[in-house]
Amino acid sequence: MGTLIVIEGVDGAGKNTLARRLVSAWERDDLEVTRIGFPRYDSSVHADLAAEALRGEHGDTAQSVHAMALLFALDRKYAAPDLRKALSHNDIVLLDRYVASNAAYTAARLEQSADGEAVEWIRALEFERFGVPVPDVQILLDVPVDLAAERAASREADDASRTRDAYERDGSLQSRTSAVYGGLAAAEWGSSWEVVGPDVDPDRLAADIFNQPSDGGKVTT
C-alpha cells in the first residue's frame, strides 16, 4: 500500500509548484507517484457545482457555508475508490488539498478556530461517515497571506483561465484560513503534519516525508 501525502495551504501559497518539485524528486528515486488535485474540477459534478456557485451561479448556494462544504466533501467521497486504487498501485499518492482544506475554510468562514464545531463536523463527515482515506502525512505550506495574495493575483493576470473565485479574492477569509491551518497542524489533526515555509528545499522534504514512519492513519481531533 502506498503512502498518502497531502499539501495544504491558502490560495497562492505555491502548492502546485511544490507538488511538481516533490514528484520530480521522488521519480528521480524511481518511486511510482500519482498526483491528484482537489477539488476535481471538470471531472466531478460536485466540484463543478461548487466552482459555479463561487462564480455567482446557483442562487444563494455560495452563501451557505455548510452547503459549500458538503459539495467539496462529496467530491472526495466519490473519489475515494480511485484514491484507494491509486494507493494500491503506487509508492506515493500526492494530493493538492484534501479534507483539512475543507475544515480550514469552513471554520474560517464561520469565524471559528481549529478546535471549533465546524472542524469536528468535517472530520466526522469525511473521515467517518464518508470513509475517505486518512492521509499518512499532511504538509502545510505556510506562506505569508500577503505574499500568497500577490501570487494569486499575478497568476490571474498571466492566465485568463485562472480567474480568482470568491474565496481567493477575500483577503480576510484567507487570513482566518491561514490561522486555522496553523491550529490544525499544531494539533496534528487527522495525522502527522510537517510545516514548511516558501523557501523549503523540495528534495530534502521529499526524502524526509517519504522516509518518516507512518502513524497508521490515525484520525484525531
UniProtKB/TrEMBL annotation:
Into which EC class is this enzyme placed? transferase
Q: Does the entry feature the keyword Ribosomal protein, yes or no? A: no
Region listing for Disordered, in residue ranges: 152-171
Q: Which InterPro entries match?
A: P-loop_NTPase, Thymidylate_kin-like_dom, Thymidylate_kin_CS, Thymidylate_kinase
Q: Kindly give the Pfam families that the UniProt entry links to this protein.
A: Thymidylate_kin (PF02223)
This enzyme catalyses: dTMP + ATP = dTDP + ADP
Its domain of life reads Bacteria
Q: Which GO terms describe its molecular function?
A: ATP binding; dTMP kinase activity
Task: Could you list this entry's UniProt keywords, alphabetically sorted.
Answer: ATP-binding, Kinase, Nucleotide biosynthesis, Nucleotide-binding, Transferase
- One GO BP annotation of this record: dTTP biosynthetic process
Q: Its GO CC terms?
A: cytosol
EC number in record: 2.7.4.9
SUPFAM superfamilies, per the entry = P-loop containing nucleoside triphosphate hydrolases
Q: Which residues form the Thymidylate kinase-like domain?
A: 7-159
This protein's record includes keyword Electron transport: no
Family according to the record: Belongs to the thymidylate kinase family.
Q: Which NCBIfam families match?
A: PRK07933.1 (NF005923)
Query: Any idea what job this protein has?
Result: Phosphorylation of dTMP to form dTDP in both de novo and salvage pathways of dTTP synthesis.
Name the record gives this protein = Thymidylate kinase
Q: Which organism is it from?
A: Rhodococcoides kyotonense
Traced from the root, the source organism's taxonomic lineage reads: Bacteria, Bacillati, Actinomycetota, Actinomycetes, Mycobacteriales
Whichever gene encodes this chain, its name is tmk
